[in-house]
Amino acid sequence: xxxxxxxxxxxxxxxxxxxxxxxxxxxxxxxxxxxxxxxxxxxxxxxxxxxxxxxxxxxxxxxxxxxxxxxxxxxxxxxxxxxxxxxxxxxxxxxxxxxxxxxxxxxxxxxxxxxxxxxxxxxxxxxxxxxxxxxxxxxxxxxxxxxxxxxxxxxxxxxxxxxxxxxxxxxxxxxxxxxxxxxxxxxxxxxxxxxxxxxxxxxxxxxxxxxxxxxxxxxxxxxxxxxxxxxxxxxxxxxxxxxxxxxxxxxxxxxxxxxxxxxxxxxxxxxxxxxxxxxxxxxxxxxxxxxxxxxxxxxxxxxxxxxxxxxxxxxxxxxxxxxxxxxxxxxxxxxxxxxxxxxxxxxxxxxxxxxxxxxxxxxxxxxxxxxxxxxxxxxxxxxxxxxxxxxxxxxx
Length: 396
Fold this sequence. Notes:
By secondary structure, the protein is mainly beta. It has 1 helix and 38 strands. The protein has one helix spanning 2-10, and strands at residues 18-19, 23-26, 30-34, 40-45, 50-54, 62-66, 70-75, 78-83, 88-92, 96-101, 105-110, 123-127, 131-135, 143-146, 151-156, 159-164, 171-175, 178-182, 188-192, 196-200, 204-208, 214-218, 223-228, 241-246, 250-255, 258-263, 268-273, 279-284, 289-294, 297-302, 306-311, 314-319, 324-331, 334-341, 346-353, 362-367, 371-375, 381-384. β22 (214-218) and β23 (223-228) form a beta hairpin. It starts with a helix and ends in a 12-residue tail after the last strand. Residues 1-21 have low confidence and may be disordered.
C-alpha cells in the first residue's frame, strides 16, 4: 500500500523503492518513516531539502523545514525558527523570546504567558549601533537611546550605565560604583567613586583606589606606573603587585613571590618565581632564545632551529620551525602523540592506553592531498584516496 502510494505520487518504479517495516525509502525523491500503527511519523523529500519529523535527540519534539529558506525545531517548552539563517532567527522559550536580523536588529522580551496584565515587561529592541531601547513598568529601568544624538543604556557592554549627549562630546559611564565622565571621549576623563582620578589622554592620567590601587600613565602607551591591590582570596597581609614601564627601554612586574624584568623590551629579560611554584626563565632576543626551568614547566627555545617545552604533563617539540612538530599529552586513560610536517603536508595522531599498554594502538595518518588512513586499534580500518579536505576538518 505504501509503495503504491509513492508510485502514484512520484511515478516511481518498484525497483526504485526500498520498503522496510517502519520506512519507505525512495531517496532522494521521498523517504517516509512510520510508527508501529502505520501512521506517518516523519518524511523527507528532495534529499535533505524538505523534511518533517521527530526532533534531534536527546531533546525530542518535532522539526520541519525547507532548506535553506526555513527550518523550525520545536521541543518541550521552546520553538526555534530560522529563515535564511543567519539572516533571521526567532527563539520562543517558556518565559521569554528573542529574535535577530543579522545580529544587527535584535529584540527580546517576556513570553505572553509570563507577561503581567500591566503591559509589556522587560522588552529590548536594538538597531546596532544607532538605537537601543528597554521598556519595563519601572521608569528607572526604562530607556530609549539614539546614537550619537542622546541617550542612556543600562547593564550593557559590561557597564551599569552609559550616557551620551551627544557622543563623543559628552559621555558618562558607571561601572562598579565608579562614575567616569568624558568631555570629550576619550581625551578628557574625570573619575569619581571608589576609583577616582583625572586623565588627559594620551599625555597623562592618574587614578587611585579602590584601596591601595594606583594607576598612572604618561605619553600612553609608552610609560606607566601601577599598584594593584591583592585579590580578594589572597592570604591576609599580602603585598600589592606593581607594574612599571618605560618603553622600549625597561619594564617590570613584581608580585608576591615573583618578579619579571625586561630590557630593551621585549628582547632581553628574566622571570623569577617562587609562588605558587618555582620557575626561572631567561630571555635573549625574545622570542628566539628562551631558557626556562621550574617545578611545573620547562622551556628550551633556540628558535627557529629547535624548541622544546613541557608543562602540565604535555610536551611540544619543534625542529626547523615550521617544518617538523611533535606534541604528546595524556587525556584520561589515553596517551596521544601528534606529529606534523609543515603543519598539514604530513599529519599523524597515535593513541595508546595508559593502563593497558599491550592493547593495539589507534592511529590516523594524512598524506595531503593524496591519502588518509584510519585504524581504531580494534580491527576497523579505512583508507581514502584522494584526501583533500579531511586534514582541515579533523573533528568533522
